[in-house]
Amino acid sequence: MGNDELLNYISMFREKAEQGKLVIFVGAGVSCNVDGMPSWNALIQNMAKAIDYSRCDTCRHRLESCENTCLLKDDFSTDELLKVPQHVFNKNQELYYRILNESIPAVTADAPLSSAIFDINPAHIITTNYDQLLESSKNIFCEQYQVIVYDKDLLNADKGKYIIKMHGDLSDASSIVLKEQDYLDYSQKHVLIELFIKSLLTDHIVLFLGYSLNDYNIKLILSWLNYMRSQNGAFDVDRRVGYLILDQEIVDDTQLSYFSSNNIEVININSMPLIQEIPADLSNEIGKRLYSFLRVIANPALEENLSTIENAVKFMSRFSFVSYEQILKLLYVKRYEVTDRKLRLFSENDYARLIAFMESGDEGATDLRQLFLNAGIVSIQCIHEHKVMRFRIGELSDNALLKSEIFNLYILNKYDEIKALLNSEHIDLEANEMLFYESIVDGFSEILKFHEEIDCSGFPIDQKVAYLHNSAVLEAIQTYFGGFDSAKVKQFVQNIAASKEREVFSGYLDIYSGNTKKRLSMYEALEKLKKDVGDRNTIHFGGTSCARLYEIKRLAITQYFFYYNNHILYQGFRDLKDFFKPYIEAIICANSDAAQKTTLWGDMEFANEKYAVEYIDLDIMAKFISTKDLSALVRSYNVKQLNTGVQEVTFLAECFKNLCHSIVTAKTYGLLQSSFSALSNIVLLLNLVVLDENSKEIIAASVEALLSDKIIAPIFFSIGWPDFRQSLRELSKLCSLLAFPHNFEFVHQIVGGEKFFEYAVNVHFNSLRHLIEQFISKDEATTEKIQAIIDTTEDFHKKVILLRLFYQQITGDTVQQKYKYILSDNFAQLPIEAIYDFIFSGWLIPDQNSIKEFLNGVIELSRKEVTSVHSYPDPVESRLECVYLLYINDMISDISALKELSEGRPHLQFLLDSESFDYSQVDFSNYMWENFARHEKYMSCFIAHKDAIIPIIQNRIKSEEASETEKRILYGFLLSGNEIWKI
């Protein structure tokens, strides 16, 4: 029997053991591997000699000299094996029991084969042996089994697993089943045990160890099987109930056929390779092979000597995606490391056998290369005795996913073309693939209509698992994300017979457990990366402080490939966003200025470099994080520019153009407007790369097409756009780098939107103004158009918003004066932001009456606030801050009217009476105190009262709470030269 066939049987026994469906029968052939323990035949020989029974007496070929050399004289028939002990018993019972005791010593050894059986952890162990070699084993699992000798033991059992000694125990001679009458009486004397064993035959697999083909016990089992088969067709003809382990050079085909027809298969382990660690107690080659066979069942890691690379590749090629960890596990590669698509092997033997196979030119060699490429591995290397060996598998562009037409449409954001492809009559996509891309382009509305009509019965197993998972996703969506039920998928995967096949689908089970282990590893590596990037005193191998990023990357990219190769629906769920979160942060961290700072070590300098961002990284950052969170990361790490090549910049510009086109022409908004969020993220990323002129032209044309669309423009300029504040800031920043033709109609359409004014008061107004200014000129014609819009707007507050938006583009003194008068006359009604805009630009110079009205309005508002609900930001405090700024800039000369509001307001107290003010209340970490300090007349006050201020700042410095402003004021103004040296 070949190794591959043996391996299949081994895998099957392992699966049955894991399922609690394996029963092991142990015969004398197992015990005889322990010194002093006889085989069944040897026991019968001892009894035959005791009564001078010999086959030679009836032999027709007998010669006077042949008896001593005859090989057949002890070859007892099945009938004789029972009758000889019966003759002894009938002749002399005392002799019968003496031979039993002398032939079978009371050995209680920790037998290697017994331990190997327990390691398999079968549901039950049934033995026809009389010795105690099983129950005397020191294997930790032994104590979980209860010894059953009599029927009553079954009734009193308190453990779930049994060692059933169906032929008795030597410690009680009366329990022994050996002679013919014992077998004839068995069914009457052991009713419960026999029934229990028969019940196991109905739904368990039986593994027979230590039995011969002629063993009476095997034939007894066959008789039971034949009886059960006759009862209502209990057994299918092709079903295997038992497997008999033999170790012979040649097995009679007739015997094989006989057992096969009786639902028992014979497995010959004569060619079984020996494992390395075999106990010295086992000197018999047959025993060694049986031990090796049992140990490999218990431990899959020992399969290496049985498996071939070719068969492993054939198995893996059945699946859409196999991760590099699974590939290496199935190839029995244990020691390795993966860094940025490079596989490093630590065993020269592993390297030699893999490379030899891939260089063989066989079909399997090409398949293995493709498996590695699909898993993201492009090269293999091994360092042995200072010799570096390298093998190039191929290019990442040869990855099957990256060569897929529809995936390339997806990653380039050509959603309009995907939509056309999905609606085509000649579409050539499998069902999961269609569902997957439909969900990305248009959400789930269309999917829900035809999903239940799909018949998955003919799907390959990996597509079935994906279909079951996606079905659970759709069920959750129909209950408005009420909860994802993974039970059916888990059950299906657990029911898969082969463990290596189940292992391929372990990624699903990881998802259901929240990918806890992987995410923990990623966050641990992220913390180390952040420390490395900020540490300039550590030398990093390879000259980079970003090495930890690759630990995160290999997990993230594997997950990316797993989802996209298996077409796992993810839209609307946080799983992937949460998974990619540490990777995205790692990319941003590794592109901070700190990441490329030189490391100093003594007098030597070591260069570091930023991580080079790739296009899959860009896709992940565009689609698996909110614009708000991405913007926060960029600010947190102070990233000014990503390390990208020309190709990645071109890719990013193309992605922007294609997504704009898809949104405008095909209305591919995605689930929960995911396309809008992706678009904003791409804009943010474009602000972090160096754009060439061609890319700028492409982007400018796309922006113009997007914002001039009558459907999209009102959506963008509304608070309904995802992360609308950050999106506006980023788009305004990007547009400042681009050139646009002036088109006031385009602007008119924007400000004429139904929700524009609500939007305008909730965004960073300067960003909005700068964006609008990109599309209009500053001339008389434009002024007339601006005037027409403002004058036809009746609501005063909307007029103010339009004035703030356009005042810098208005020309002509007459028109300017007209609007300045309006602003002055309504000074007290102006929003705070408008006051700042117009006063500091010179458009608003309020008179004393307007100022008085404004201050009285603050007082009145404060009085109302005492009895009303407070809001944030506090309108009183906002208006007071406005007063402070106008006062210190000499635009208001008298604020004494606000004295009644001074309690609990140190800023106001200071401005009203700086002489008697308590300077211990000064806090330069507060931006308003910082504004005061910028004016010489107020700084002189602080210097004059520095004795009250200095201790406070010094204490904050000691506790590491002081801001940079506080330090600058302390060392630059409050302390003299001599005092600084005393610190």
UniProtKB/TrEMBL annotation:
InterPro entries membership: DHS-like_NAD/FAD-binding_dom
Highest taxon above the source species: Bacteria
SUPFAM superfamilies, alphabetized: DHS-like NAD/FAD-binding domain (SSF52467)
Name of the molecule in the record: SIR2 family protein
Organism per entry: Agathobaculum butyriciproducens
Taxonomic classification: Bacteria, Bacillati, Bacillota, Clostridia, Eubacteriales
